[in-house]
Write a structure and sequence with these properties.
With about 90 residues, this protein is an alpha/beta fold. Helix content is about 30%, strand content about 20%.
Length: about 90
């Protein structure tokens, strides 16, 4: 199955509640999504979601956000992924 990756920042972490609900409702049961972010959510997320902390905290604001994503993408073996955002 194609690896699904969804980055999220601490400021929009609350939107993961809605994404979690929608993935549970509309995506197949075997779907697995890697959520890459910083602070682990303090609420329950879908069993389809695997939260991966890519750093203790985000530094550099929005302009520095992509360096964390790039570092993670360079660390995985998959050559093809489905990349999505939590608010799409």
């Amino acid at each position: 199955m194609l690896k699904i990756i969804m980055p999220i920042c601490d400021q929009t972490l609350y939107t993961l509640k809605m994404s979690s609900y929608l993935f549970d409702k509309f995506w197949p049961e075997e779907t697995q999504i890697d959520i890459i972010g910083f602070e682990k959510p303090d609420f329950e997320i879908s069993k389809k979601m695997n939260f991966i902390s890519i750093a203790e905290k985000q530094e550099g604001g929005a302009s520095g956000w992509s360096k964390y994503i790039l570092k993670y993408l360079n660390s995985i073996e998959e050559k093809q992924i489905l990349f999505t955002l939590e608010d799409f």
